[in-house]
Design goal:
Distance between the termini: 25 Å
Helix content: over 70%
Number of domains: 1
Number of helices: 2
Shape: elongated
Number of strands: 0
Order of helices and strands: HH
Oligomer: single chain
Largest sheet: none
Structural class: mainly alpha
Length: 65
Amino acid sequence: MDIGIVFKIAGIGILTAVLHCVLKSFGKEDQAHLATLAGVTVVLFMVIQLLSGLFDYVRSVFSLY
């Protein structure tokens, strides 16, 4: 596993948190919540892809060829 993916997820989290705070300070709380939801969705898709790769790897280890 590459350490770069951890930094990407952390970067998306920091960017989402900053965007949420800025939008909330301007009084646009609905857009702030949508931005947070979008950030969580992007990270969730990244994690799902990683888990898919993990399951494929585990399946290949235990396959009987």
